[in-house]
Amino acid sequence: MNDSTALNPQERVNRVRDYLIGLQARITAALEAIDGPEADGGARFLADAWSKGPEERLQGDGITKIMEGGRVFERAGCGFSHVKGAQLPPSATQHRPELAGAPFEAMGVSLVFHPRNPFVPTVHMNVRMIAAAKPGGETVCWFGGGMDLTPYYGFDDDAVHFHTVCRDALLPFGDDLYPRFKQWCDEYFCNKHRNEQRGVGGIFFDDFSELGFEQSFAMLRSVGDAFLNAYLPIVERRVGMTYSVRERNFQLYRRGRYVEFNLVWDRGTHFGLQSGGRTESILLSMPPMVSWSYQRKDEPGTPEARLTEHFLQRREWL
Description:
Elements: H1 9-35, E1 46-52, E2 58-68, E3 73-85, E4 104-115, E5 122-133, E6 139-150, H2 156-170, H3 177-188, E7 190-191, E8 196-197, E9 201-208, H4 212-238, H5 245-264, H6 267-274, H7 279-282, H8 303-311
Antiparallel strand pairs: 1-2, 2-3, 3-4, 4-5, 5-6, 6-9, 7-8
Helix pairs in contact: 1-4, 2-4
């Protein structure tokens, strides 16, 4: 379909909403299949449907799906939300000052999966659309999202695979998108207070509408549809690896850096809290167990030291 004005703003919103709800269902079903039957210790997602009424700062609805205590995934959260508000929060107008204070509508799917085995990386993915009314009544839409990988014990072939899938998802929409979004991801997913990358990166984009609605939405779908192929082969490669208390303790320590990023730097967290979003859903990305160590130093040459020396560095994986 060519980009045109044939679709009114509500029709566009409905199309994006239908896609996102379907994406959430596909991803959570695939994760349950990986975690296995309950008889073998597998877990199932709890679906928590919620709504916000006219008396609240935000109005809308969503479905928060959470899996805890599984055989493969210690905690996995995958949330869909669709909300409306009278005033865009500051975190959404950094690059669009002309929309400061405008009424808005936002929807998206956001997920974070925390595996039990320290050799399986944590993963994050988010795809979203925001629509806002300019002064004068014109509605503008833009998209954002991406995916990134956070290993505790790194493997080069995992990073290469993840980045390859990300590149291939973007390639039909322009040769320049993967390099741009890869760099954006590296710059965004950084704990600046520690001058340390969160993981091996991936892709990240925001305020994206340059291809017009139809092609920008198609690009968003390509990213969302690529997620399972980017992540599940890595899970399958690593989930059977044997680990000890040492690796488990290191995983919990590194999870602390994940929490720091989400609370200090993440724009999605800030957007949700500033706009009056549902706190339980906003914080579904938090791991169930985590630890901090004071000035921990890992011995040179160990796998733990290699994580920061080799993997938590901005580098070209392809």
